[in-house]
Amino acid sequence: MSCTVKVNVKLDKAFINRLTEDIKKAALLTIEDAKDEIAQSQTVPKDEGHLQDDAFTFLISTPPEITATLVYGLPYARYQYFGISRNGAPLNYQTVNNPFARSHWLEPYSDGVYLKELFTENLKRIREGG
């Protein structure tokens, strides 16, 4: 025996568009908050502050995906992040300006737990009008 059920779903396009815009706002706010949190953690190597201060964020929206990105774009960022010099020798980080300076400063965020919680809080606040 078989049974066929026909369902007609009408989506409110205006609501979906508002929700999409709110998600974009929350994603960008989340990555900006993360950038600030990382700076406050004082783990980015800092001599004059260029690496940390020149980090930038941006949003890419290619439906159905929305991607918020944090970039340390200076030419030496890769060497600093992986803790190696151009010739492959390990770097020794001075800790005068950032006492916890080290390589791999993004690892505490790589599991996504903090960012998911932060995104959820930001989206909730935006949706509530705050």
How is this structure best described in words?
With 130 residues, this protein is α+β, with helices and mostly antiparallel strands. Helices cover 41% and strands 11% of the residues. Helix 1 crosses helix 4 (113-127). The longest helix is centred in the N-terminal third of the chain and has 28 residues, at 13-40. The termini are far apart. The mean pLDDT is 94.
Annotate the secondary structure layout.
Elements: H1 13-40, H2 50-53, E1 56-62, E2 65-71, H3 77-82, H4 113-127
Antiparallel strand pairs: 1-2
Helix pairs in contact: 1-4
Which descriptors apply to this entry?
alpha+beta; 130 residues; elongated; 11% strand
Number of strands: 2
Taking all Cα atoms into account, the compactness measure Rg is: 21 Å
List the total number of helices.
4
Estimated structural class: alpha+beta
Order of helices and strands: HHEEHH
Mean pLDDT: 94
User: Stretches where pLDDT falls below 50 for ≥5 residues?
Assistant: none
Global outline = elongated
Task: Name the helicity range.
Answer: 40-55%
Main sheet overview = 2 strands, antiparallel
Strand order of the largest sheet: 1-2
Kindly estimate the percentage of residues that lie in beta strands according to DSSP: 5-15%
The N- to C-terminal Cα distance equals 53 Å
